[in-house]
Amino acid sequence: MPNEAVRVRFPPSPTGLLHVGSARTALYNWLYARHTGGVLVLRFEDTDRARSTPEAIDQALRVLEWLGIDWDEGPTRQTERMDEYVSTAERLVADGRAYPCYCTAEELDAERSERQKQGLPLTYSGRCRRLTDAERRKFEEEGRTPAIRLVFDPAGETVIEDVIRGVVRWDNALQGDFIILRSDRTPTYQFANPLDDIAASITHVLRGEDLLSSTPRQLAVYRAVGAPEPRFGHLPMILGPDKKKLSKRHGAVSVEEFRDRGYLADAVVNYLALIGWSFDDRTTVMTRDELVERFTLERVNPSPGVFDEAKLEWLNGEHLRLLTPGRFTSELQRYLDLEGSALAAQPERVAEVAPIVQEKLRELSQFEGFAGFLFGPVEYDEEAVRRVVDDPDAPRALESARAALEQVADWDAEAIEEALRGACEETGLKPRVLFGPVRVAISGRTVAPGLFESLQLLGRDESLARIAALGRRFVTEG
RNA sequence: GCCCCCAUCGGCUAGUGGCCUAGGCCUCCGCCCUUUCAAGGCGGCAACACGGGUUCGAAUCCCGUUGGGGGUACCA
């Protein structure tokens, strides 16, 4: 029943941190492979030796693992296949499909600016293609080492049926012969990339739109070596809030930063899937399995999308709530360990507190500020304290709460709630008026987990002590 | 300069000629939840870039303009 086995690939160049744009490309390839039961090939394009680093490879591997993107073949590296690129280039020269080019960078620049001036496309003139043997010998004697250029037939046009953009066409006369092997004998991206895809029998090339205009040149390589052509699908770019290509100056753009800030991999995957793809007109929160089941190329959008951190944050909250309590606790503990938080040293306490914050957090990084008062002494937020001090009902609220809580026999959330509501009736104070000061008294803030659960976890003595302590402020400050 | 791509609320998007006085989600604003709130519930603001066609009928098709993006390297 599967027609043609799908074979896709993700070929990052290990020259820096894995960008969210690259991660999205990896994700779409992975989703497509998993959805179709196909194969995902991982390969590192490290022919740019000056910029490629082993650290970047490790980092990319860790990020993919964290995101839960696994691959079926590889990882391979282009530097392992150097001989292959060179011998293929030589064969193309022997076949007359490529030729040595002796032009220097300066000559090329001059040519380009001249064409620029004339309003012509900036393509290579092809002058070295017509060199005589004698001229070649002369250049060699001058010590020039040639690069190899592939002959690009200027006749007609190159047409593809892009999987997500439809028909795209280019005038072949505007392409020009391009370099496939540098003068140092290393291959260019335009050459190594298609050759590797051919070797891996890739059926679908799904990549960013920034690579759309390099398609004709790569197709020329397929044709030169007589390989069957793949389908191409160019994914929309991810933009920053200013609609420019997303970059460092927009803030966090490496996937690791989001991991370190306490985002869940599932939330990041869900969010990334939604930039450029949608399932229908109403589904937003999806698990990894749902994404795999629903992902199709037909629903990928061709227009670029802005990276919206606010929505990622919200989605992360949704995914935090989707976790089972046990899983939430372990994710939280893992995050605290990673951050080197002091709270990480009290895993039992973390496990006790986790359930009462799971409904409220959007990011794991909020935990410490949100529930730190349950781990040690309170740190009073000045603003919160002032609100209590300015409240004429506060002294009465604190005193009645203290008195009521003192009478609680079994110190659990239910009994605590009953006692505090009783205090409301007795004093005639509205719950929000009475509970507010109590909250500040025990947590030091106006924002905290559920009040009754917090009191229970804090313990009777500590709770009463904190309420009394805040009450004393009225004596000294009032 | 030249080539290519894109164009629905502030953001992500649904919409493939009539179901659209354009739907959902995020943000923002307001209200509610006899517990604050960053959680939950409810409600509100807010868009088919512009101009021509085609058609009985256009957000949807065609052309142009404008705007944005990408490419134009011995980077990938």
Nutshell version of this structure?
The protein has 478 residues and is mainly alpha-helical. 48% of the residues lie in helices and 11% in strands. Helix 17 packs across helix 19.
Feature tags:
RNA-binding; 3-stranded antiparallel beta sheet; mainly alpha
Low-confidence stretches: none
Report the end-to-end length measured between terminal Cα atoms.
81 Å
Estimated radius of gyration = 32 Å
What is the number of beta strands? 12
Q: If helices are DSSP runs of H or I spanning 4 or more residues, what is the number of helices?
A: 20
Structural class: mainly alpha
The whole-number mean of residue pLDDT values reads 91
> Strand arrangement, largest sheet?
1-2-3
User: What's the multimeric state?
Assistant: single chain
Shape: elongated
Q: Helical content, roughly?
A: 40-55%
Strand content: 5-15%
Largest sheet: 3 strands, parallel
Q: What does the model show?
A:
The chain is mainly alpha-helical and 478 residues long. Helices cover 48% and strands 11% of the residues. Strand 1, helix 1 and strand 2 form a beta-alpha-beta unit. The protein is elongated, with a radius of gyration of 32 Å. It starts with 6 loop residues before the first strand and ends with a helix. It binds one RNA strand of 76 nucleotides through helix 4, strand 7, strand 8, helix 6 and strand 12.
